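Possible race condition, two jobs.
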Amino acid sequence: MVFSSLQFIFIFLPIFFGCYYMVPNRNKNYILLIGSLCFYFVGTINNPEYLILFIISILIDYIVALGIEKHVKYKKIILLTGIFFHVGSLVVFKYLGFVLMELSKQMESFNFTKNIVLPIGISFYTFQGISYIVDVYRGNIKAERSLLHYAVYIAMFEQLIAGPIVTYKQVRKELYVKKINRLSVMEGIGTFIIGLGLKVLLANPIGKLWTQTCAIGFESISTPLAWLSIFAFTFQIYFDFWGYSLMAIGLGKMLGFQLPKNFDYPYLSLSMTQFWRRWHMTLGSWFKEYVYIPLGGNRKGFIKTIRNLMIVWLLTGIWHGAGYNFILWGAVLFIILVIEKFFIGKWLHRYSMAGHLYMFIIIPLTWAVFAIDDIGQMGVFFTRLFPFLSQGMESIFPNDYIKYWNLYYPFFIAGILFSTKIPFQLLKKIKNKTIITVILLLVFLACTYCMYKGLDDPFLYFRF
């Protein structure tokens, strides 16, 4: 069950919020936990053991945190036990299948064909669990005595599957006292609809160009179509994930929670350094707080700064998935960020036109590495982007881009426009609530029609 589906919007939400708003504040956490577990169960209905894994994960975090406070002498061992469980779960369910498949390719006597299904949301709820027990270990927060409250923190359905990554201290107050009023609910509904529109009306249709290009085969496409397709993916992944994050934030407001912002117009950035401060901000904050700074950050000299950056970006790549392309993607980002940090970063921010032109080229190139999991096909695609690398190989259909440009140019225009602040600044200037209501209603009806027609594609980040 995804947010951009008729089942979620017209069945789950009315039933859930009908119960949630009817009960008094002291009982809302019970409804939220039951609803969230039901939501997760639907997503794991073909693998119910993953719901058990999820519940065990919650119980272990709860026990570990209490153990850290109670047994101070052994708190480091207890902490490492909790971290080992989370990292071990990720390794087994997210990476073991890939490793065994690679071994089977290299060893004839070893045959592994079983597909290990990735438990939905595991990359996100494990990071939240680790952040919680580490914060308790550091003394930044007190261990939660109420199992109900901790379970709600991890299981909240609005951010369970694909973030934002929320730390316990960010929502602790709301777990006890929820301030829900008409204004917060209406703001939440509006935010949800905007996110839904970005996902259904923009990310889904423009993403089909990338899907079609992959189906055609990179060997057969022209250079213009290669660039069009990777720009289409660039817009798809942004509006897909930003749309999800906005929907999560909107649902949070309706529930009485203030979830952290996850995007800040990253495509307006002047450097990749700035871009990754604006893209998936909660993931970047997590790696900074729980990996980069503990390693020493930039406080221990040039060599160790480089080492720490390399570790963070390789882990960032690996976190996104099991594949050589993710490792390569993390390594490429590391190299770019080091070059910016020590050489060209200040220049890019001083000359904004150069910065924007640089990012116009570098962003889609890095997403190409991210998107193509076959390294050989990645090489073919780059020969299409840069034909001088193709050693005379020509496109079968040199004018193929004309057809696809005529089909998709409205979405490219919308993608460029909504990558800026202009539409949202204009919306804020509208003081007439009736006009805003009509706009949101039209967006919602358009989304409903598209979902009815079957255009409710899963979110890209569900894969990670």
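Job #2 (started ~2 s after job #1):
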Amino acid sequence: MTPREPSSAAPDRNTTARRRASDESIRAAVAAAAGATVVVGTLIGTAATMLARSVVTPPNRTREPVRIHDLIFDKGTTTSGQITLARTIESETLGDYTILWDHDQGKARLGATITATVDTVTRRFTEAEGTPLADATAVRVASAPQRDIDDLELPYESVAIPGELGDMPAWFVPAPTPVDGNWVIHVHGRGATLTEPLRAVPFVAEAGWNSLVVRYRNDLGAPAAPTGKYGLGLSEWRDVDAAIEWAISRGATRIILAGWSMGGSIAAQTYFKSEFRDRIVGMFLESPAVNWTETLTYQARKLRMPDWVARRGMGLLDSPLSRTLVGIDERIDLAELDLVARAEEFDVPILLLHSVADTVVPVTASQALATARPDIIRYVEFTQARHTRLWNVDRITWEREVREWFTALA
């Protein structure tokens, strides 16, 4: 009997097993790819959400990031001497500053650098007050050289500005010889101390302008927004508008808005939206947040995030999910905050100061704004100063420009 050939319609057992193994491998690979996609998508969504939240969340005001390595007091005193700090961008920058510790209960002036190593910098400090510096292990560095408004040695009054969330504390500094109706409203930056704008106050006072240095929502000592989050200017402007109304009730007829960093964005939104816009005759912007999209992309790159992840995070700010995922009171339209795109809407003189060495807000948006409106913008560019440290590094240029501009407008 001749053996029968295997039927072509019935695969042998080995072939069937191989096919099954291949199918299972394909299914496993598909499942793994799907799982990996979910994981990657989750990581991207988490990173984007974290970026969006970090932008609108006020910084931890108790954080003191610069470690103290050594402290040597001058003979017979505990208020001055030499302090050796960890070398950081904040501690190594030339100029005069303030150091704060113990939740701002201790303060001192930080002066010239004495020596520096790769890891540390030793500087002079003077006029320490409050909690003993000897008890501190770390400090934070504030850009203003003034510890408090008393350091200006000018008459002032602590006042309260009625706002929609409650009273906003402020300082009123009258000019020694005021020009009737001339007021400047000073707005500090994101998470900065109220002392940040004080560098300008003596020079505007000299030119005859009264000063009102204001707080806004979520500041330490001021009412908080319902969710405690920033609006990047789109909500804070209402507090500055309340300050304008308060100033008008006390005789202000010509007002300049002076904004530092995010305070520049707040000042611009006030200018665009205020019912008192006809009283605003000029703007002074120092290291301003001119384009938040550019600023947030820049910050994301410093964290080594791809641009498209940063864009997703920025998209969350204006998303229907913004309240749930980001925790903000109102959606934030970054296009509305783009001052370059809105350059044609300005019709008052602007003094714009920025530095190419700014590591927080890139200078490029200020350059673009100045290029867009050379007819009304006096743009002065600095080369070595860090963010809002222009006066500290080159006070001669800064003071000359501020004095001349405010005097001309007075």
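The chain has eleven helices and 14 strands.
Logs attached separately.
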